[in-house]
Specification:
With 525 residues, the protein is α/β, with parallel strands linked by helices. Helices cover 29% and strands 26% of the residues. It contains 16 helices and 25 strands. The strands form 5 sheets. It has a 13-stranded mixed β-sheet with strand order 2-1-11-10-12-13-14-15-16-20-19-18-17. Strands 4-3-5-6-7 form a 5-stranded parallel β-sheet, with helices on both faces. Helix 11 links the parallel strand 12 and strand 13. Helix 1 packs across helix 2 and helix 8 crosses helix 9. The longest helix is centred in the first third of the chain and has 17 residues. It is globular and about 75 Å long. The protein starts with 5 loop residues before the first strand and ends in a 13-residue tail after the last helix. The C terminus is likely disordered.
């Protein structure tokens, strides 16, 4: 309908819809000429570049399976993912942000017998490499074979065609596989129509890493394109320079942005947060982790738009979202159960919890994944009836809104008391010196576990003492056993490739360094 309208903009150029179609068709034809067969996997490792989208849509035309890979993954993760997926081609930069991706691909190639092609981005090919740009410009097939030849390779929308990589902290990343119907239903019917009222006038800002296929890709890039809108990509998020994201939103008059909580909090705490004209924003989508209520409220004040939440798991899809039209108290939940999805709250014995009773959140539905690629053991997270067991603890109220109250595995058991670390984190984040907080267990021979509080300082603030933070928590009217007993202060938390806080790594640091001056135990009040 609008061939000359800009579809996607990155740090290199803006691409109109007609050019996006042309490049994806050319790349699809080139991949067929290289012998790519339906059902074979092509991995694409790149920062937030438009090549991710071009490769995805090209593979979609011919039944190839798209495996986006975070540009921060290195040899261990890359070897695991490429071997697990049996990738036949790898698309990658020559180098990015000081890392030699070409050298890594060359080193791994002998261990990847399925890998037939290496395709380089934004650089002249070397040796057996192929040029991505050249493949996208090769249109000789149009006269030789014709449009019907390419259309004849189009797969069913029910075929598994997109992989999303989960960024677990206790094991290697896993590959969950989705069909186009899964994605279209989620992004058009649920996210677009039900939650955000998206139209062809919307312009999405992709702030989070797009290489995992989830928060930084599906919602800000694919969703607006499915509605005839546009997307703008921030090449690389820099937590020390949040103004880059603000400037991108203001310059391109983005109508919505998608972020993980850490990024949104960094924008809020930026001394320049009010220096940009962000009046174009209709909403901000938060996904990937829980955003503290106080931060959501502050974001809505500063940016003048509702904060919308997407709740789910990379492995299994999304059962709930908040709607931008929801009243403020409802926007602080994990959202309403979506049309086409089922949610059950269950006790440890598998029986359904009573209304208002906390239990494990389980779900199944229309946007769910097909499970893990290559018959990887799923560890029992799906039961025989197709319910995904999330490990989250929550309640669903009488109107169908989900509230997350903790994680089964995250619960700290101190001297027989069950302590929800998320509750302590929500209190700590309200302290003026704290920009982010992570609460983890610290092993203790007598009590079993004690409470370790890790914090990231707000800009320009003095370091608070452990005693000060313990008193701050107690003043929030929680039991005395909720006060932090160890403290560590970070410039930024260790994170996995998806940007989530790596609590396992933080726990290990407490274990290794529990007697340091920066992590002294407190005497419980």
């Amino acid at each position: 309908r609008t061939p000359k309208k800009v579809a996607v903009t990155d740090n290199r150029s803006s691409i109109a819809y007609q050019d996006l179609v042309r490049r994806t068709e050319n790349l699809a034809a080139s991949l067929l000429d290289l012998g790519l067969a339906a059902g074979e996997v092509v991995a694409v490792q790149a920062p937030n570049w438009s090549e991710l989208l071009i490769a995805h849509l090209a593979l979609d035309r011919i039944g190839g399976i798209f495996l986006p890979v975070h540009d921060g993954f290195r040899a261990t993760e890359m070897r695991h993912l490429l071997q697990t997926a049996g990738a036949v081609a790898l698309i990658h930069p020559a180098a990015f942000h000081g890392f030699e991706h070409r050298a890594l691909a060359e080193a791994l190639a002998p261990e990847l017998p399925a890998l037939r092609h290496r395709i380089v981005l934004r650089a002249a090919p070397q040796g057996s490499e192929l040029s991505f740009d050249t493949l996208c410009e090769n249109d000789g097939w149009r006269e030789a074979q014709g449009q019907e030849w390419l259309r004849g390779h189009r797969p069913s929308a029910q075929e598994p065609l997109q992989i999303m990589v989960s960024s677990g902290t206790t094991s290697m990343p896993k590959c969950s596989i989705f069909s186009d119907n899964n994605m279209v239903f989620k992004l058009v019917s649920q996210y677009g129509r039900y939650a955000t009222q998206m139209t062809d006038r919307d312009i999405g800002a992709s702030i989070a890493p797009a290489g995992t296929g989830a928060t930084g890709y599906n919602y800000p890039i694919i969703a607006p394109l499915l509605h005839g809108g546009s997307s703008v990509l921030l090449e690389r998020w820099d937590g020390n320079r949040p103004g880059q994201a603000l400037e991108l939103i203001a310059r391109h008059r983005c109508t919505f942005a998608v972020m993980i909580p850490t990024q949104l909090v960094k924008l809020l705490r930026s001394p320049h947060a009010r220096d940009y004209d962000l009046s174009s924003l209709r909403f901000i989508s938060n996904a990937g982790a829980k955003l503290a209520d106080s931060d959501a409220e502050e974001a809505e004040r500063i940016f003048g738009c509702p904060v919308q939440t997407v709740y789910g798991a990379t492995d299994a899809g999304v059962p709930t979202m908040t709607r931008i039209a929801d009243p403020a108290p409802r926007r602080r939940t994990a959202g309403h159960v979506l049309p086409g999805e089922e949610v059950r709250i269950i006790r440890d014995d598998g029986t359904e919890a009573a209304p208002g009773e906390p239990g494990e959140v389980t779900w199944r539905g229309a946007n769910s994944s097909y499970g893990y690629l290559a018959a990887v053991d799923h560890g029992g997270v799906w039961d025989e009836d197709g319910w995904y067991h999330s490990g989250d603890l929550g309640t669903v109220d009488e109107e169908g809104y989900l509230v997350i109250v903790g994680r089964k595995k995250d619960m700290i058991i101190r001297g027989g008391h069950n302590i929800n670390p998320h509750k302590i984190e929500e209190i700590l984040i309200r302290h003026p010196a704290v920009v982010d907080a992570a609460v983890v267990p610290v092993r203790n021979a007598v009590l079993g576990e004690q409470i370790g509080a890790a914090i990231v300082l707000a800009h320009g603030q003095l370091e608070p003492s452990l005693a000060e933070l313990a008193r701050f928590v107690l003043d929030a009217d929680v039991p005395k056993w909720y006060q932090p007993e160890y403290l560590k202060i970070f410039q930024d938390f260790p994170r996995n490739a998806g940007g989530k806080v790596d609590k396992r790594q933080i726990s290990l640091l407490f274990e290794q360094d529990s007697q340091d001056s920066a992590a002294q135990p407190a005497t419980p009040a």
